[in-house]
Amino acid sequence: MNQKTNLEGFVILDDTRGLLMKAAERLHRHFKDQLNLETIEKYVFESYELLDAKSEVKIYLPSLTERFAKDRLSALLKSDNLQVSDTLDVLFVCVHNSGRSQMAAGFMSQLGGDRVVVRSAGSAPRESISHEVIEAMAEVGIDIRQEFPKPLTDEVVRGSDAVITMGCGDACPIYPGKRYEDWVLEDPADQSIEAVRVIRDEIKKRVETLLSELLPA
Q1: Looking at the predicted structure, is the pLDDT value of residue 4 above 50?
Q2: pLDDT given at position 83
Q3: Within 13 Å, how many C-alpha atoms sit on residue 112's CB side?
Q4: 3-state secondary structure 88-127
Q5: Closest CA to 133 of 122, 148, 155
Q6: Pick from 11, 147, 185, 203: most CB atoms within 10 A?
Q7: Ranges in the chain annotated CATH 3.40.50.2300
Q8: Catalytic position from the list 93, 94, 95, 162
Q9: What does pTM read for this prediction?
Q10: Is 190 a catalytic residue?
């Protein structure tokens, strides 16, 4: 029977703790020239706690935690000027990170290619991306099935060059020297596929305009 281990006040089952430690070791091999294992372990366990407590995501948590922590650590390196990069970091934030921000991130990744690093987050993440949103994006050749809702964290804002909010601007901290925009868009949650297509197409137009302004030819 698994015993529970308390790490900094958060209770984690021993089996899960072992999986998280292995994730931290893998991430340390990736970031070993810039971050020590202690820092990486801190971010891994904190990321697990954030996903468990602040989002509705409850399955595959150790695996998703590793991806979430890697994203946060990469943003941390840029925000602290520990990693030189020629790419532009763009963050899309909506309430649930299950619709608008996921579609915007999908379009920005496709259109920006290796010129951009794209992240998305939510002020109150849901368990999964809307099925209609996944279907609507698949119709235009963008597969977002492997994405998942993530809570908004400070370092991803600090590590971004442009921050686009959609109905949750007050939840996003403001840092000088960054570009902020708030896009007023209808929420696709619980909408028909026809309605989601309309929102999708509007998001694509806005992403195209944003990209042309951020990375002029």
Answers
A1: no
A2: 64
A3: 28
A4: EEEEEEECCCCCHHHHHHHHHHHHHHHHEEEEEEECCCCC
A5: 148
A6: 203
A7: 87-217
A8: 94
A9: 0.90
A10: no
State the pLDDT at residue 81: 81
**Active-site residue flag, 27:** no
Catalytic residue (choose from 168, 196, 199, 207): 168
pLDDT reported for residue 9: 54
C-alpha radius of gyration, the chain, whole number:
18
From the candidates 116, 172, 185, 196, give the one annotated as an active-site residue: 172
Q: What is the pLDDT of residue 3?
A: 46
Mean pLDDT score, 187-199: 96
What's the topology of domain 87-217? Rossmann fold (3.40.50)
Residue 90 designated active-site: no
For 16, residues 6+ apart whose C-beta sits below 8 A from its C-beta are 48, 61, 62
Q: What is the pLDDT of residue 5?
A: 46
Answer left, alpha or beta for residue 177, where phi above 0 means left and psi between -120 and 50 means alpha.
Answer: left
Distance CA 158, CA 172 (A): 11
pLDDT at res. 80: 85
Instruction: Tell me the CATH number of domain 1-84, given options 1.10.8.1060, 3.40.50.11690, 3.10.450.50, 3.40.50.720.
Output: 1.10.8.1060
